[in-house]
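To illustrate the input format used throughout this study, we show a single complete record. The first block contains the structure-token representation of the backbone; no residue identities are included at this stage. The design step must infer an amino acid for every position from geometry alone.
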């Protein structure tokens, strides 16, 4: 079998040598026909030079460098598009995704699974707020998303060639891989592992905002729940207004005074204004995604390729 490893990188010069030192001996017994594709946003450090130095030692190490920073999701999609393997593994270079799990993934693939996800059993080095946000986000996505996205799974996974082809056919521009793979379907399974801390350096990923964006992608990209919720909230407010009007009319008929002073009116107006802004924001998320899709801008632009022909299309299944 041919095996492709897709590795998104940005400012990772300290991690690349150790990553390859651990990865290559693991791949050799599986198959000599492997490729390691580093999909790199332009880095201000020596990441590119380090990768090219390693490529001189082993031509199976390849590089895709983009014209500007497109972000990790687009880097992964680019690596998938230009991969050639019968199976493709997406993995982070910081060694929080342990390469030692790859033989088990390949074994599951050979048993007939098209997707093998690495599911985190524990998260070393993550703060309590980050774990809380992740837990709540996955719980919400699981409850309302149109597809089943397993909790505590990142982009670390193995995909068969036909899954990669179908993912590359999708036109969504958000690059939410775990949702796209769930949407494609086929036979999927997961492997539990304990996630270690980074090998070196600091993450280039804003954990709180990144987790929030992942949650928004999972909810907005794969569910219309928020639109339904905002509509339901509108009907609820209308119902409350009608009840309040009836109560006001009844008190006037009976000669009573409705305890509705200026402070309460101000609070109600502020509440309704906030509710309207939330509904507009929800509409804006969906409309913004429509705008992104309609423009059909390229998801990435390759500036340099080493070991990869840019005219290559995904390998036929």
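Output of the design step:
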């Amino acid at each position: 079998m041919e095996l492709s490893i897709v590795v998104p990188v940005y400012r990772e010069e300290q991690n690349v040598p150790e990553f390859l030192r651990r990865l290559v001996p693991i791949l050799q017994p599986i198959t000599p026909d492997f490729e390691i594709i580093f999909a790199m946003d332009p880095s201000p450090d020596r990441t590119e030079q380090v990768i090219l130095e390693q490529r001189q030692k082993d031509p199976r190490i390849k590089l895709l460098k983009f014209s500007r920073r497109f972000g990790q999701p687009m880097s992964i999609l680019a690596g998938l598009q230009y991969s050639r393997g019968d199976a493709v593994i997406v993995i982070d270079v910081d060694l929080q995704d342990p390469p030692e799990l790859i033989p088990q993934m390949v074994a599951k693939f050979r048993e007939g699974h098209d997707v093998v996800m690495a599911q985190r059993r524990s998260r070393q080095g993550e703060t309590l707020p980050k774990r809380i946000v992740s837990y709540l986000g996955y719980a919400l996505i699981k409850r309302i998303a149109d597809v089943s996205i397993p909790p505590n799974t990142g982009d670390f996974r193995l995909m068969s060639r036909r899954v990669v082809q179908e993912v590359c056919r999708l036109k969504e521009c958000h690059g939410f891989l775990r949702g796209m793979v769930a949407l494609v379907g086929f036979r999927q399974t997961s492997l539990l592992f304990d996630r270690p801390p980074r090998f070196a350096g600091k993450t280039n990923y804003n954990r709180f905002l990144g987790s929030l964006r992942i949650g928004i992608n999972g909810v907005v990209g794969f569910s219309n729940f928020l639109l339904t919720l905002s509509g339901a909230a509108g009907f609820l407010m209308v119902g409350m207004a009608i009840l309040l009007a009836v109560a006001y009319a009844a008190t006037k008929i009976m000669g009573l005074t409705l305890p509705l002073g200026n402070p309460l009116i101000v609070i109600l107006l502020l509440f309704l204004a906030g509710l309207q802004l939330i509904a507009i924001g929800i509409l804006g998320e969906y409309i913004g995604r429509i705008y992104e899709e309609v423009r059909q801008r390229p998801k990435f632009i390759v500036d340099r390729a080493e070991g990869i022909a840019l005219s290559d299309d995904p390998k036929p299944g």
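Structural context for interpreting the output: The first strand starts at residue 3 and ends at 9. Strands lie at 3-9, 34-40, 61-66, 87-90, 115-123, 153-160, 188-195, 302-306.
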